[in-house]
Amino acid sequence: MFKMMIWWDNINNQVRKVFKSHADSKMKANHSKEAELESELEHQQLIEELDDAFVEWRQAQVRFDHALGMDETDYAIFTMEASEKRLAMLLKRAKQTNLRTNAYRQLIKRCS
What we know:
The protein has helices spanning 2-65, 69-96, 102-111. The chain has 112 residues and is mostly helical. The chain is built from three helices and no strands.
């Protein structure tokens, strides 16, 4: 009887280990999927910000081209410099996060 109880405890422990490892692997898989979705969302937001920054930069160039007088010229220069800084900052962040998409490549081509 005692041997049977030891045998049953061993089987029970092995089953627990299998269930625990299975549950752990499922948790890791779910966590990796969540992280992947979060990363994709961040990349999509960054692409949208880059596109907005590019439009802002183009508008600043047009504003500079059509500026009349010293005040408008100063304002146009200020907005152009600010938009260039923002665009450079976002491009740096995209490079750091290894953002590689067709939209990003097209944006780089438009800026060149």
